[in-house]
Design goal:
seven-stranded mixed sheet, four-stranded antiparallel sheet, mainly beta
Length: about 120
């Protein structure tokens, strides 16, 4: 399994960005695809997760109502649409995949494969 995150950049307070996670190597759909972020000096935290088998989604409380996770099957890509961005959203964002339909429940511990991160910077 390989994952490639892209779409990060510099955006002003209140702006929007869409991150993409291109995934390959899956032989079945019993995976969870998660977005995580890590700000300087802080631990990596879960942002959102997408369960491939039934498209169930989950979000951290800090991003509910502002971020939307979705999937494009034809492109094997999972997106994270981020709106109403705040300076506290500044972080390196990573996408990850966990084996099993329950992987989204366990945050970073549930993930088995990680892509390289993409930096999101929100200016005030």
């Amino acid at each position: 399994v390989q994952l490639q995150a892209s779409g990060g950049g510099l955006v002003q307070f209140g702006g929007s960005l869409r991150l993409s996670c291109a995934a390959s190597g899956f032989t079945h759909n019993q995976y969870g695809i998660g977005w995580f972020r890590q700000a300087p000096g802080k631990e990596r935290e879960g942002v959102s997760c997408f369960r491939l088998i039934d498209s169930q989604t989950s979000y951290a409380d800090s991003v509910k109502g502002r971020f939307t996770i979705s999937r494009d099957n034809a492109k094997n890509t999972v997106y994270l649409q981020m709106s109403s961005l705040r300076p506290e959203d500044t972080a390196v964002y990573y996408c990850a995949a966990g084996r099993g339909n329950g992987s989204c429940r366990y945050g970073t511990a549930g993930m088995d494969y990680w892509g390289k991160g993409t930096l999101v910077t929100v200016s005030s």
